[in-house]
Amino acid sequence: MAHPLPRPHRHDLRIAVGGLLGGVLLWTLGIHPRVPSDHVVLWRALWAPLLPLAATAACELLRRTRPRAGLLIGTAAVVLDTVTLGSVVTIVLYTDLMYAAVLYGTPAAARRIPWVTGMLTVLGGVVPAALWRDPQGLLIGVGVGVVAFAPASTGWVVRNHRDAAEAARLRAEQTALLAEMDRAQAVTAERARMARELHDMVANHLSAIAIHSTAALSLDDPKTSRDALAVIRENSVEGLAEMRRLIGILRDSSDDHEPAASPTLDGLGALVDGARANGLDVTLDTGHGTVPAPVELAAYRIVQESLTNALKHAATGRVRVSLRQREGILDIHVTSPYRAGDAPRAPGSGSGLTGMRERTALLGGTFEAGPEGTLWAVRATLPVSEGDPA
Questions:
Q1: Quick one: which H or E segment has residue 335?
Q2: Owning domain of residue 124
Q3: For residue 259, is pLDDT > 80?
Q4: Top-confidence residue, 101 or 230
């Protein structure tokens, strides 16, 4: 099935109509570049120049959609024009066809046409001058250069600038797309970081509140209820303080607020004391030197989340926390009594293990958590730079 020709561009239609009307006007006024006495004219009919004029004007309709076909037909029309009285408009329209063939044609045609027209320009000047032994023969080459080589070269320059501008536009779009992807990834990473911080900072206190409030409601003992309410109040106050510090970080990321959101390993003692106050039997064994701040924060949060999980899920017994530094590695090992089938004392979402795993992965460490016989063990190894003391 034949494909219909695409409609010509409106500017091409204007060029074709304007060229045709201009050529007809010059023909009506009797303005021609040649007269019969100049040289032998094979076709001297007065209406003969209108044929190549109409052909080149029609080719203007193809200058964008079929530039190669338009150039070939236009070349035949120009050759025909040379054996008539001629029309200046036909030559002008042909130069535009040459220009359009380079600008809108295929890349191969755009590279080939300037070379071909350049060779014809040289040959058109050198060969006639050599054969006729007359320097005026060089004017033929000049004419070919003006009609063919000059518009082809102009089209090549314009095409190069157009391609360069298009390439720059594409690079700008790609840069904007990459920037948007980086921004989205940064937002996602920041949301994940804040989710981990919020979970680790508040989950421990809320778990203790849930467990002790359950005990206060289930036991008909005024002293036990008062003790439970005291623990609930202490955890609610501490949780509220943690939330306020986190909100302060979100509202103002200046350095003045950073220490509040970056606990260090020196605070593990207070963390363990809080776990003991919530009813856990915890022992702490530490043996580490100075470690980078990101490692300190990750280690603190891993221990904090492990104690929170022990408070919610561990069976009765001792919880052991151990931190050891060796050969550029900080080992974290937390074990708690484990009995399969026990229901948790407080509901959990499972995001705690995910947060610990993410923190470890961000630092290039390893993380494992799971039952080991009668214990639930959390093991994490965090790389420490070699320059840090062991």
A1: strand 329-337
A2: 10-175
A3: no
A4: 101
